[in-house]
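Sequence in, structure out.
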Amino acid sequence: MKLRLISLLLIVFSQTISAHGSSQVDGEWQPVLNTSKNSHVVTQIQSSPLGNEILIAYAGEGRLEVLAEDNTPFIRITQQGVFANWDHPMWFKVQTAGPRPLPEWVKDGNIEAKWTQVSKNNYYGWYDQRLVKSDEHADEWQIGIAVDGERQMIDGYFKSLNPPETRTLVTLDNSAAPIANLSAMIIPGVDSAIRVSYTGDHHMVVLDKQDEPMLRFSPKGVEANTASTGWKALGRKPYGAAVNDMESKNTEASDTKNSWVLLSSHSAYTWPDSRIQSDETGDSWAIPVFCHSDKVVKSIEGGWLEVAQR
């Protein structure tokens, strides 16, 4: 039932979003929902050039009341439809994204119960100024509701949409100890990747974070150890058995923990290694490789460089 309600909300309220709601502080901020703890309440936020609209569907029995900042209800959502208190100032404030004149009869400060049905559906959407970041120190937002009299909260936080002043580039240290017949390059992106090529006559094995063999380069191409922790973390296929060649079978006979699968007949491969992603705890990274030609472990090394955004 909950999934059907979500689909219904998406169909009814979906709209093309080319910008986000305005903010009363510097920068551009988007309200983000925290996960709802009530399975009968489905909530969604739509941000558009007009403002931020919150949408609520209620699948439970009884009624859900939306509370104003003074904790008095101004919207009721039931299975019979949606009702609004026409004597509540908040009902008129949420009809538009910006300010609007209030009717004279709601300005006296005395709120009476004048509930009127405004929809036959069990969901409703409105503009709510509580979704607008109005204070530099306000990182979160809240809208109170009452489900059959039990006070609950729909809440979330404000996410900055301002581009960062700097960005981090992954660099390769070509002055580090060279590895014979190996060349590497960084492929920039949101998750930077590394590309390694190998032209040697012997095997060269890339180790993962656990120092397990993960990738094996040779004149025959590139193989992956699908049993390694590093390969599993990549989430890439293949996941299965070892390649059916005599050399791999002989290798596995001496190390049953490894399961080598041929990835490419070319001795070059690109993958997004987590070790080259900046974690702000160090100023350099290293990927160890085992060179069969001299039986030692060396490293592909590099660092990170902060550059200003234009």
